[in-house]
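Re: the multi-chain job from yesterday

Posting the exact lines I submitted so nobody has to dig through the queue logs.
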Amino acid sequence: MRGIRLEQVKLLTALFGFLYFIYGTTEALSYFGREITLVVPPTGDLFVGFVLLTISAVYFTGLKKSLEGSIRGTSYLYVGALLGMGFAVLALLVMGADAIEACLLHSEDFIGWSPLDDITSYLILGLLSIIAYLPVKDVSKEPLKVNT
Amino acid sequence: MREVTIALIGNPNVGKTTVFNALTGLKQHVGNWPGVTIEKKEGEFEWRSIKFRVVDLPGVYGLTAYSIDEKIARNFIVQEKPRVVVDIVDASNLERNLYLTLQLLEIGANVIVALNKVDLAEEKGYEINVKKLEEILGVPVVPMIASEGKGLKELEERIAKSLDREPRRIEYPNFEAYIERLTRVIEKDEMLSRTYNSRWLAIKLLERDEDARGIIEKSRKRDDILKELIDIFNSLHRKYEDVELALADERYRIIGNIVERVLVKKEERITFTEMLDEVLTHKYLGIPIFISLMWMVFKFTFDVSAPFSDIIDWFFGWLGDAVGSHIANDALASFLRDGIIAGLGSVLVFLPPIAFLFLAFSWLEDSGYMARAAFVMDRVMHRFGLHGKSVIPMIMGFGCNVPAIMATRTLEDEKDRLLTILVNPLMSCGARLPVYALFAGAFFAGSEGTVITSMYLLGIALALVIAWLFRKLLFKGEPSYFVMELPPYNRPNWGAILGNAWTRTEKFLRKAGTIIFAGVVMVWILSVMGPGGYLGSEALENGELLARSWVAVIGHALQPVFSPMGWDWKAGVALFFGFIAKEIVVGTLGVLYGVGEENLAQTIAASGAFTPITAYAFMTFVLIYVPCLATIGVIKQEAGWKWALFAVVYELVLAYAVALMIVGIGGALI
Amino acid sequence: MLPLAFAGEGMRVIVRGINGGRGVLSRLIELGLAPGSEVIILRNQMAGPLIVAVRGSQLALGRGLAMKIQVEVEK
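And the result, structure tokens for all chains:
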């Protein structure tokens, strides 16, 4: 059984909590009219900001627990990573749907569409979340061992 | 061929449906239990030369008959006497599940235990000695992993071989003497002991069970039995304060002994479920996570299903033109093209989003999250007089109110259920979105998102306020007690998820589909016909011609009603037909303004018939007033005519009041 | 003795009594919450419902109901 160290939990929750917080904030700001582009432009959807900030809050709660020395912090890392990856899978599905519209149906709304248009902050963050997920992925098969 | 009836029973969430599907395959028949709206599923399978009719009983925790589900299950076993009762037991939750098993043995049913989810039990660190369990219970025990089809063949074989087995008797040491005494008196009535298991009747009488009491009332030996019962109670009360509790205690003691002997817990572990629950039911994070997940569900529903809707839309457009251009007779061609085919198209365009929504919901249900959603939202719902479990039908209402209202069946209390049904149409369903999109695009360009979101929020706010109000006025009292099992989280079982999503989609198609279809055909008839007879299919494109149709007659008749809000007769017609189904509003406006749906927004904006304020009022009216015919139909089916009528009336009044208020306040501000 | 609603997270308690109608009582018994049962409080956030573990399963209990269940803290 592979384990995870508490130090690792602290590091990963801090890192991802911060990343999601930054992008959540830029999404929220863009809804209120202040567009800041960090690598990818914001979508301008308030809910995207809400979801990203929620995930950030999950990670930060995990950070807080693990700083207190509680192994429960691992749970937050796990759920944060799952939510983040789920969101990315959704982004991929939307991209696939848009590709059908553009390439197969030649819909008017999708003229000049390119897959790059659907690359969003949450897609990239979700793919990065795999890094957070890998050390904890085995919990669904085998109970987790946390080394302090 | 020999035909034998067997029944499947088990607690909720033990995988009963999976076992049922695996046993019967596609040979299933869905109906209702007599007199109630609870689904009855039957299927069959063959083993060698025996044909088994399998009846799927409702998921229950026990057989005390306090809830309708339990009554159904119990009556079936007592009256229909299935030859074998397969009790599906969750191996990872043995202790609680055995309570039902014990009650089944009490009735004298020929029980076979299907010990499902042995893989999960292992994961939890449990080791179960099946041989020993079999020995102690005295009935066959078949270990299974139904989701992977493991143990099925053996189950079939054990069922077939147990047909003539003598039922095993269960003994309660502390009560045995009393049960014996009562049984002997009951057995004096031969009629009684032939129809019922007299031991079971005796136990139930000790528990003060009302149904058992009713059975005795009709007996010839009624007086003897009651005399003995009073006698027994007199001596029992010296020992126990409450006999029913004492019996429950006795059952759990027996179960405790069994579990101790057959189950070894290897170690306590933090499981997957505990880790997820730590976060998903968190005091502060729970609700934001719930909202995030719901938003993701809707994004999946609407964005990912869009190309499929477009394909259907395109296909029916093409089919209509193809058929129309090959038929010379104008009336017939128009009937087929604009009536039948357009009608079918308008129903089927809704199929992809509805199917996607159900897929997402079935997945969340199967994974175990839905129970957590009820937990997390109970605090909010409770404040407005609703039950925690109301949240699932409410959310489903965003997709379609028809299945949402059917989903209220999980609420056990009648008042809670009625309340949830009545406010459900205020949850803005998918069919209302095109109307918002049209008007937001025409009058609020640049802030469509905010305007449309405000509609959804208004709907939620109204639903909560109305629920609170109805709770105060109509359904006095508190919501019923909240208690539900939180099943462990599951990795998705796609077979079950797809099956579940499909059943619901099919129901939607049958219920809503036929009504919407009929509605569209009716709109067509009223548009091409007028007091002066057939107007020709151009009426659908030519506003002047249309002004002579029945539609116009209706619109002008309705106009005085809507003039306080500043809407013209065309708006009145659209709302009139929107009664059938909300998506017809957009189509009707398209016809009335004589343009296709693509250019409709600009045309309406340019026509001057609406100002932004009256347009916003129109949107709120569409949000609130009468749900579609299909929804009314399903309210009638679930709650009766009286409540269906009540829903229609209160919503019309509310819609009118809110729309008038918006026009009034909006006018005063500008 | 105290109401279940006041028991803190992580506590192990024994059910001693349930005040409520026959319907509630028999439902709770079927779910494993009979008098004498050992209950572990998994979540009690002092507002909204509780989550408890009893006889190997997890139950969500409304706060109102949890007020009616009398428990004793296990030594």
